Amino acid sequence: MMKKRPFLLPLLLILACLSAACGHTAPNETTIKMEAMRFLQDEISVTAGQPVTLRLVNQDGYAHAFDIDEFDIHTPLAANETMDVVFVPDKPGRYTFYCGSPGHQAAGMVGALIVEPKLSGAAHHKSAPQNGDNDVSLVSLFTRRRHPRVYANSWRVGQHCLCFAAKVQPRTGARPARIVGQFI
Fold first, then answer.
1. Is the pLDDT reported for residue 140 higher than 60?
2. Do 112 and 47 reside in the same domain of the chain?
């Protein structure tokens, strides 16, 4: 007698949707919140040659701006305004973004946009550690802080892989760590 497996159909539907999405690369999408004279996310990683959408959210009661000189982005935001900026970074490198409102950059309202080079198919397969059965190995990082903060940047579905980048912000005074990887 065959047992019914009610979870099997939804699982197959989810896998089918993921397989269909793997052939198309979604744009890099990141939300940057501005509050108390700072960017709450002060480091963003994106991939060269792929469209990037930055959702700018000004949570302050006064105006801010978002500027990246190298990409000719100069976007003023009124108090409590949200705006999307879409662009394609063409050259890998590290670029500074800042608030162009008078005095805000000097007060520390700056961050870094890291444009990673586009990886070839061979590089994709080499960058993810694998164990003997071709599953991706998982690595845990431990800190003394009870609940370390982890910020996920640029999750995207690539060709037959789920690529990700994250920034771990450990206890005060310790150096932040970047985690970049993928599930194939």
1. no
2. yes
